[in-house]
Amino acid sequence: xxxxxxxxxxxxxxxxxxxxxxxxxxxxxxxxxxxxxxxxxxxxxxxxxxxxxxxxxxxxxxxxxxxxxxxxxxxxxxxxxxxxxxxxxxxxxxxxxxx
Length: 99
Hints:
Layout: H1 2-15, H2 27-30, H3 34-39, H4 49-61, E1 65-69, E2 72-73, E3 88-91
Antiparallel strand pairs: 1-2, 1-3
């Protein structure tokens, strides 16, 4: 259930930004209300960040988004557990796929 709710929020937020604008992944869980957080078993939006990162990596693997760190797109073979520190994400430019 958390994956579905977070994916909907991520898609909405990503779609609101034109390439090359990026989002902070925390925007999706921070957009949830307190009742939504409780329904997902989270006491705080930070509890959902590992799931958000997992969803973003799946979206990257499908060619939907690019994941960036310090303004540079991360290599496609880099696993989420290998990335330490803040990341940003953006929709792949129209007509271009990373997959």
